[in-house]
Amino acid sequence: MSTWVKMARYNLQRRENYLVLPWILPFCFAIAVVTVGRQPGRNGAAYLASYFIYFFTLGLQAVGRSLPFALTLGASRRSFYSGTALLGAVLAMLSGLMLAALQSTERATGGWGMSMRFFRVPYLLDGPWYDTWLTSAVVLFTLFVYGIWYGIVHSRWGLLGTLTFIAAQTLVIVAGVLLASFEHWRFWSIGSPTFAGLTTVGLTGVIAALAGLLVVGGQATIRRATV
Amino acid sequence: MTPAISVSGLTRRYRGHAALDEVDIVIEPGTITGLLGRNGAGKTTLLRILAGQEFPSSGTARIHGAAPAEDEQVLRRLVFVREDQVYPDIKIGQALRAASWCCPNWDGEFASSLLEDFGLQTNKPVKRLSRGQRSALGIAIGLAARAEVTLFDEPYAGLDAVARQLFYDRLLADFAAFPRTVLLSTHLIDEAAALFENVVVIDRGRVVLNAAVDELRGAVTRVSGPCLAVDALAEGRAVWERRRLGSQASVVLAGPIAPGDREQARLSGVDLTPLSLQQIAVQAAAGAFGSAPRIGLESGFATERTCA
């Protein structure tokens, strides 16, 4: 068994973190039904975000208390990271497949018999099942490794470092939003909701590239982490 | 033969404070070495660097000739049990299972017997364990891992005397059956003294004593009795410590006491008491040996290095 797989299994030992996953969707769906199910449009897709946000939390939790014991058992930081990211990738693939299946079911049942949109997110998750699988898996994995990076930063530099990390990203995001909203560049069009003219698959590619950057950043940060 | 542990010029600074300062140590394979010193002396920092959990500011630390940091070929040959070990939110059984995946020489039956000895149940969450029980879990992992290099940092914090004796007994028995290199940091020096073949005493980041226990045994003696008789016996010898109360005096003499001197002491009513390992470590930490990377007894007991 490679050390990556060992570390993935090691992370899975904290079962309660992963046992929450199957319960998020029915819980959020129930809330969507009672809140927007009777409203015009019946768009509850925003509630689906909680599932994605939980992936960020999973990544965040994967480092703090798990890294010290992993190092005690003789794993390297690099293997711990890779094994944890591998676990995130597998979970993202499985979750993406599940979301694609549920989206197809939602379509086939006319929005669960009440014309409700929950698994069909306009532009992002509204294409064929394989597009939905790909996009959701990539986004989930990206959020997972983003969470890992936060966990590493907190583990290495504490609260002050984390706040600095957040501040730096806020600056980047604000700059990005200013650029995107610059009139002449037309990154975002309200008439035709696309980002910089990208198709969903194109945007998925951009997010995948971002995930790659996050993995590189996380790997670079964890290499000098001490416990 | 390649040393199991070799440290050369190792320095670790934290914002100007030197936790380790030019440390040089060589530990041969198949030995149990005591790592002694006061709180904050640098023992844990040294062990963390050896385990690849911390990085040196300068110098090198090697396990079987290779640097441990991020080298899995080296890391899988060692296990490091810390006093303040942080565990994820898992149960004891899960911690042992993870250890069995990662430690190539893992002995599951031995781990189970250790848990039984310490009264631990596999289905109990680690976060609900008392301090002593956590220590027992660390000991079980450290021993059952049978790693070629086993690093223990105050492994029995919170354990009662019976459990500590159990640890010593099981360590010795398993060491005899499966020899390995053990570096054990402890404050309970006399209690663990029987385990050690060598001791390394660190004080304020520097090695102040590095010697075989056999060489130390009986090599430092407290001499107490009438002032004149004590002074006569101490004349021309290295004296580490001198106390005087009225007509009585007490000195600590370095170096073996010759049979003739013993007879002289007996006739003049002077008591000769060999210092225990703990007392020697205390003297070393107080600067009796001076500060040198490797102090043999001959140089350590030289008159000019004493603090008489």
UniProtKB/TrEMBL annotation, chain A:
<feature type="transmembrane region" description="Helical">
    <location>
        <begin position="133"/>
        <end position="152"/>
    </location>
</feature>
<feature type="transmembrane region" description="Helical">
    <location>
        <begin position="44"/>
        <end position="63"/>
    </location>
</feature>
<feature type="transmembrane region" description="Helical">
    <location>
        <begin position="20"/>
        <end position="38"/>
    </location>
</feature>
<keyword id="KW-1133">Transmembrane helix</keyword>
<protein>
    <submittedName>
        <fullName>Uncharacterized protein</fullName>
    </submittedName>
</protein>
<feature type="transmembrane region" description="Helical">
    <location>
        <begin position="84"/>
        <end position="102"/>
    </location>
</feature>
<keyword id="KW-0812">Transmembrane</keyword>
<keyword id="KW-0472">Membrane</keyword>
<feature type="transmembrane region" description="Helical">
    <location>
        <begin position="194"/>
        <end position="216"/>
    </location>
</feature>
<feature type="transmembrane region" description="Helical">
    <location>
        <begin position="159"/>
        <end position="182"/>
    </location>
</feature>
From TrEMBL, chain B:
<keyword id="KW-0547">Nucleotide-binding</keyword>
<feature type="domain" description="ABC transporter">
    <location>
        <begin position="5"/>
        <end position="229"/>
    </location>
</feature>
<dbReference type="InterPro" id="IPR003593">
    <property type="entry name" value="AAA+_ATPase"/>
</dbReference>
<keyword id="KW-0067">ATP-binding</keyword>
<protein>
    <submittedName>
        <fullName>ABC transporter ATP-binding protein</fullName>
    </submittedName>
</protein>
<dbReference type="GO" id="GO:0016887">
    <property type="term" value="F:ATP hydrolysis activity"/>
</dbReference>
<dbReference type="Pfam" id="PF00005">
    <property type="entry name" value="ABC_tran"/>
</dbReference>
<dbReference type="InterPro" id="IPR003439">
    <property type="entry name" value="ABC_transporter-like_ATP-bd"/>
</dbReference>
<dbReference type="InterPro" id="IPR027417">
    <property type="entry name" value="P-loop_NTPase"/>
</dbReference>
<dbReference type="GO" id="GO:0005524">
    <property type="term" value="F:ATP binding"/>
</dbReference>
